[in-house]
Backbone:
DNA sequence: AGCGGTTACGAAAGACGTAAGGATG
DNA sequence: CATCCTTACGTCTTTCGTAACCGCT
């Protein structure tokens, strides 16, 4: 049995194999020969006394033990990375390493990508993997560092911070209505509606500035799961829509959309940041998140929390 | 620069050196040559870019970075150990590894040591380091797994569980008073007192079963920091004493001591178990703690918490 | 066939122990 | 001068890449 093989390297190789679903691909990533990677995986399995990855020729799959091990491996590697970083913090700007982040599609496209790119430019030694996805992700499976999500992640093993609230309002193209405004929420029922699938059904609750609530049943004439599509539909006057304020702030300024019910608002959404407990003290992760939050603060219609 | 040295081994060597205060001693423990241990320490320092241990010939001392690193090193090694154990759990009884525990002196002497010994006997592959100490310990410095303490540890980085409450009462030798009982707390002021230094000063608050409070100023005729000494003094009739019920349950039964104020009690103490976050999932640590708690449950006058 | 994982073998790399050097109380 | 850490050197273990082998699609 080999003794001198770095156990942390074993974990790294294993994690790479698990995520790439291929030993040879992982070996390429790590600058090893396939043989080496294969041997390291076998070695780890021997040490732990369990099969971690089921090989069925051209098909690798994690065993249940493999799933558990992957989470642990990330935690351990994260802790080591944090230790290595800890004392490099003194030399600012010398950040290095990898960051994997997942953010909501629209927020990513319109605002956060610029911040992510800027961060990478300031820290050239850091490699950023930037995924835009609105769905619930399998956080540990993909080895994510930061996950920004609308709503609150369900996974209780994650560290979750509420970072902002998203104000939403009822808007429509000025061409839709002669008056440009309507008086009471109930009048919405007579107007067609552009609905955004993932966020709400076809009924909605509005709250007035005084705290009064109104339940409105909307008749959806256009339903989409993509906010850009919904936006286009609304601007072209198909119907009214419930939109995050940050998303349509410019349209309001230029008069492409109007606030149909200025004294009423749709329920706010919460924006959360989820972090794995693994690299808790990672400086680069902290700074990256701070950078994203800075960008969010610039966004009109977004109410940042925590200083 | 060496590349293939197991980073976890580096951490282990460092931790051993830090705790033993000597490279050669650590090397002996680990079955290495002094040269190897020295090299490994140097290698770790190079990797982290910081001096961890100050060598002043015949005197090793941790730098401040060394202190931080030691805590991290324990966490990382603990996480790896937990990973190794995780899949061995299936074979019960096959526990192995080391446990370092610190418990209060009196509790250890009278009750817990039997449990610790029993545990070791059931798991011969486990090595138990068993320290009896009432003082605040530097948990991470000594690499402790389980610390049972009267009161609540201050270190916020530890996982702390309240495991029992300790009922305390005012007792005295029947030879001290003709009546064997007194009526009101204030009457204590006229009787000499045996005081236990670490737990309270010379004033004390008593609570009646109905919730009434009474402040009593006692005149100490015998002050000691050792509960066995205090006990002897009390039994020999020097004065009354405030004692944990579990400690004097037998004396009450045999009439060596009497409950002076059966309807009044001194403030309860809380017994806590502190664990380092490091080896959170360590099976052996969990089982060991459970074993100690089982023993505590047998103790008369101790109120266990959490099932 | 072609792609991917495992096993065999030679070569190179690195770590270990021994031993010498140096500093301190 | 005894102790303890550091550095140098030769040996030996171990790992790596190449390459052959095998099992699927």
Residues:
């Amino acid at each position: 049995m080999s003794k001198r093989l770095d156990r942390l390297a074993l974990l790294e190789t294993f994690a790479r194999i698990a995520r790439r679903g291929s030993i040879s691909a992982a070996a390429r990533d790590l600058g090893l020969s396939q043989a080496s990677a294969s041997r390291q995986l076998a070695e780890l399995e021997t040490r732990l006394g369990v099969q971690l990855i089921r090989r069925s020729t051209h098909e690798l799959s994690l065993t249940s033990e493999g799933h558990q091990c992957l989470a642990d491996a990330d935690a351990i590697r994260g802790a080591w990375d944090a230790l290595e970083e800890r004392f490099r913090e003194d030399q600012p700007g010398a950040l290095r390493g990898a960051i994997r982040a997942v953010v909501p599609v629209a927020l990513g496209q319109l605002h956060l990508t610029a911040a992510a790119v800027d961060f990478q430019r300031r820290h050239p030694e850091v490699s950023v993997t930037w995924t835009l996805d609105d769905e619930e992700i399998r956080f540990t499976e993909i080895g994510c560092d930061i996950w920004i999500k609308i709503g609150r992640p369900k996974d209780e093993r994650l560290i979750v911070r509420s970072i902002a609230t998203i104000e939403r309002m009822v808007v429509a193209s000025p061409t839709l209505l002669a008056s440009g405004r309507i008086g009471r929420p109930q009048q919405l029922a007579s107007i067609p509606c552009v609905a955004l699938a993932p966020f709400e059904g076809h009924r909605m609750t509005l709250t007035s500035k005084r705290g009064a609530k109104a339940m409105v049943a909307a008749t959806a004439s256009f339903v989409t799961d993509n906010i850009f599509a919904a936006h286009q539909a609304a601007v072209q006057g198909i119907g009214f829509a419930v939109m995050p304020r940050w998303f349509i702030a410019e349209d309001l300024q230029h008069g492409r959309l109007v606030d149909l019910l200025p004294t009423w608002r749709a329920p706010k959404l919460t924006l959360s940041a989820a972090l794995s407990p693994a690299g808790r003290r990672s400086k680069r992760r902290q700074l990256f998140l701070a950078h994203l939050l800075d960008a969010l603060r610039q966004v009109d219609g977004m109410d940042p929390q925590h200083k």
